[in-house]
C-alpha cells in the first residue's frame, strides 16, 4: 500500500502509453497492444492513463481511444490538439480529462508548451465545450506566468508544466542551467496554485530527473511515457513504473522530512 495515497501531499502518476502503439504501428497488426499496457500500468501503480491522439495517427488510434474509454478503470487523460476533429472525438468518448497540446505534423514529439495567451480566441470555445461536457481541461504550457494567466482567462482548471528544457539541461550536464530551470518550474507551480489552478508536470522525465520535480509541493501529478516504455524493453513495464513511483515517493518523503 502506498504510504502517500489518499493524503493531501500524494503525487499522482499518469502513464503515457503512446509509444507502445508506436512499436505496434512500425510493423502493423495488433501487437504490442497499448490497452494491455494500460492495464499493466494500472496494476503497477499508475493513477491514470494518458494517450495522445494525433492528427496523423502515428501512434494511438481511434480504436485505442474507444477501448481505453471503456476498459480502463482509472482516469483517462486524452492529449489533443485544439481542432474541431479532436474536439468531436473528445465529446464522443468523454474522457476524465483532456490536455490541449501544441501539435506540428513534422515534429517527432511535442517540442514545447502551448502558447495559450496568443491562441486565446481559438482555445476559448474549445475549452468551454469540453468543460460543458464534464471533461476536465488541462493546458500543456511553459513555466511562464503569462501562460498561467491565460489558463485562468480561458477557464481551464489545470495546467501541465512542460519539463522538457529542464530534462535536456540535466542530460547535457548543465548543473546551473538545470537548477535555474527547476526554479522556473517551482515558481510557475506556486503561481498556478495562487491563481487556483492545479499544477501538473511532464515531458522527458527520467529516474534521474524526476526527483527535483516530484519534490515541488505545488505539483499534483506527473505524466511520464516515453522513458517508461523505453525502460520496459530492458526490465519490464511493471518494474519501470514501480521504480518511478518509488523515486517520486522518495522525493516527497525527503521534502516532508526537511519541512518537519
From TrEMBL:
Localization terms from the record: Cytoplasm
Gene3D superfamilies: Aldolase class I (3.20.20.70)
Residues annotated as site: Transition state stabilizer: 160
Catalytic activity: 3-amino-2-oxopropyl phosphate + 1-deoxy-D-xylulose 5-phosphate = pyridoxine 5'-phosphate + phosphate + 2 H2O + H(+)
Entry GO CC: cytosol
Record EC number: 2.6.99.2
Main EC class the enzyme belongs to: transferase
SUPFAM superfamilies associated with the record: Pyridoxine 5'-phosphate synthase
Pfam families: PdxJ
Active-site feature positions: 52 (proton acceptor), 79 (proton acceptor), 203 (proton donor)
UniProt xrefs under HAMAP family: PdxJ (MF_00279)
Role description: Catalyzes the complicated ring closure reaction between the two acyclic compounds 1-deoxy-D-xylulose-5-phosphate (DXP) and 3-amino-2-oxopropyl phosphate (1-amino-acetone-3-phosphate or AAP) to form pyridoxine 5'-phosphate (PNP) and inorganic phosphate.
Subunit details: Homooctamer; tetramer of dimers.
Family note: Belongs to the PNP synthase family.
Protein name according to UniProt: Pyridoxine 5'-phosphate synthase
Protein's organism: Microbaculum marinum
Amino acid at each position: 500500500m502506498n504510504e502517500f495515497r489518499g493524503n493531501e501531499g500524494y503525487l499522482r502518476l499518469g502513464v503515457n502509453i503512446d509509444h507502445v502503439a508506436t512499436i505496434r504501428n512500425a510493423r502493423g497488426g495488433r501487437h504490442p497492444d497499448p490497452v494491455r499496457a494500460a492495464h499493466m500500468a494500472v496494476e503497477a501503480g499508475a493513477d491514470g492513463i494518458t494517450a495522445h491522439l494525433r492528427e496523423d495517427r502515428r501512434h494511438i488510434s481511434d480504436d485505442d481511444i474507444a477501448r481505453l474509454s471503456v476498459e480502463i478503470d482509472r482516469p483517462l487523460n486524452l492529449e489533443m490538439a485544439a481542432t474541431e476533429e479532436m474536439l468531436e472525438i473528445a465529446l464522443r468518448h468523454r474522457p476524465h480529462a483532456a490536455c490541449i497540446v501544441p501539435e506540428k505534423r513534422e515534429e517527432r514529439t511535442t517540442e514545447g508548451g502551448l502558447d495559450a495567451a496568443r491562441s486565446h480566441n481559438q482555445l476559448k470555445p474549445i475549452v468551454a465545450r469540453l468543460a460543458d461536457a464534464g471533461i476536465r481541461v488541462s493546458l500543456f504550457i511553459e513555466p511562464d506566468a503569462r501562460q498561467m494567466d491565460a489558463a485562468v482567462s480561458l477557464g481551464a482548471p489545470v495546467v501541465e508544466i512542460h519539463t522538457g528544457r529542464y530534462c535536456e539541461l540535466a542530460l547535457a550536464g548543465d548543473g546551473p542551467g538545470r537548477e535555474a530551470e527547476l526554479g522556473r518550474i517551482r515558481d510557475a507551480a506556486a503561481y498556478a496554485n495562487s491563481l487556483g489552478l492545479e499544477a501538473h508536470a511532464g515531458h522527458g522525465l527520467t529516474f534521474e530527473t524526476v526527483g527535483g520535480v516530484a519534490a515541488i509541493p505545488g505539483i499534483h501529478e506527473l505524466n511520464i511515457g516515453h522513458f517508461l516504455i523505453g525502460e520496459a524493453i530492458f526490465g519490464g513495464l511493471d518494474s519501470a513504473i514501480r521504480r518511478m513511483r518509488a523515486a517520486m515517493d522518495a522525493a516527497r518523503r525527503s521534502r516532508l522530512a526537511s519541512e518537519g
